[in-house]
Specification:
With 138 residues, the chain is α+β, with helices and mostly antiparallel strands. It has one domain. The chain has three helices and six strands; from the N terminus they run H-E-E-H-H-E-E-E-E. A six-stranded antiparallel beta sheet has the order 3-4-5-1-2-6.
Length: 138
């Protein structure tokens, strides 16, 4: 009887842990400003929970930074063709707030990278290679 109770508690804790991760209320946003038009990308808890977990102290990142840059450029140009004047400024790897082992890239572009004046874009690239769609903010 004791074993059944312990197993039930372990299963309940596991299910609760999985449910909490899938229902995490977290939002990460990317922003693009091109020729006076604002766009955003959004990654919510549901999308984050589908991303691969990664422990930077134990393993190599599942998505190489150069691949993240390539995907960011491709999706930016496909989604916002008027962004051709933007130049790559940086790429950074960020941990999703309040979530252990969940990460994403921000690929940053500026029209004038030396001054950060003009048009700009912070493009989210998830570790599975997903680049969330750009939504026009009217």
């Amino acid at each position: 009887m004791k074993r059944i109770t312990v197993c039930a508690v372990v299963v309940a804790m596991t299910v609760c842990g999985l449910a909490q991760e899938a229902n995490v209320r977290v939002t990460v946003e990317g922003a693009v400003l091109v020729k006076g038009q604002a766009y955003k990308q959004t990654v919510d808890g549901k999308m984050v929970s589908k991303q691969p977990s990664w422990d930077p102290l134990k393993e190599k990142c599942p998505l190489d930074p150069s691949k993240a840059v390539q995907l960011g450029i491709e999706k930016l140009m496909a989604g916002i063709p008027s962004a051709t004047q933007l130049k790559l400024a940086s790429v950074s790897l960020n941990q999703v707030p309040s979530m252990t082992n969940k990460w994403y890239y921000i690929v940053t572009f500026f029209e004038k990278p030396d001054s950060s004046d003009g048009d700009s874009a912070n493009v989210i690239v998830c570790l599975d290679g997903t680049v969330p769609p750009f939504v026009n903010e009217k």
